[in-house]
Amino acid sequence: MNLSISLHMLARAPVPGRVKTRLIPVLGEEGACDLQRVLLERALQLPAAGFSQRFLWLDDSPDAQLQALADRLNWTLVEQPAGDLGERMRRIATLGLAESDAVVLIGNDCPALDGDYLSGACEALHGQPVVLGPAEDGGYVLLGLRCVDPALFHAMPWGTDQVLNMTCERLQQLDWHHRLLPVLWDVDRPEDLPRLAALGIRVEV
C-alpha cells in the first residue's frame, strides 16, 4: 500500500511579545521571538521525503523573510483556521485528508524531531490509522492520522500533562489502533535552553 501523506506544521508567526511567552522572563520579548524564528526556520528545513505536500499553517501573516524561505523549500503557506488549538487541528486534519490518504501534524517547538522521526511516522501510518509522537511534558509533538474524529480534539486540556493520556483513551474508545513513537522534548521553559545549546542552538540571554 503506497499512501499519499501530507505534512502540516502549525506555528506562531515570530512576533515579539506573542511567542515563547514562558521564556520572555529569561530571554526578553525580542530574544523569545528570535528563538521562535530559529526553531521555525530549522523545522522548515526538515527533509521532504515521504510527503506529497507540505503546508505551514501560521497564526498571522508571514514577514518577507519567512515567506521567501517557505517558498524556496516548497512549503505552501496558509493562514490557520479559527478556533482553539483542537478545533484548528481538527479542521487542518480534515482538509488534509480531503487531498491525501494520511496527514502528519507537527509544531515547530521540537528540535529533536528529525527526518528519521518523520520517516518512522510515515512508516507507522502504513500499518495503523494513528501514530503519536509523545512529548516528555505529557503532550505530543506529532500526530499522524488516516481518519479523523472530533473526539480527538474536543475539550482537550491543551498545554497540560494530560493531553497524551486523554488522546490515547479516546482512541481506545473509538477502537482505533495506534503506534507510539519514541518520546521527544520540546522547547517551552527556561530549563530547556541548555539542551538547545547542546544541539548547537544558542540564544542570546
From TrEMBL:
<protein>
    <recommendedName>
        <fullName>Glycosyltransferase</fullName>
    </recommendedName>
</protein>
<dbReference type="InterPro" id="IPR029044">
    <property type="entry name" value="Nucleotide-diphossugar_trans"/>
</dbReference>
<dbReference type="Pfam" id="PF09837">
    <property type="entry name" value="DUF2064"/>
</dbReference>
<dbReference type="InterPro" id="IPR018641">
    <property type="entry name" value="Trfase_1_rSAM/seldom-assoc"/>
</dbReference>
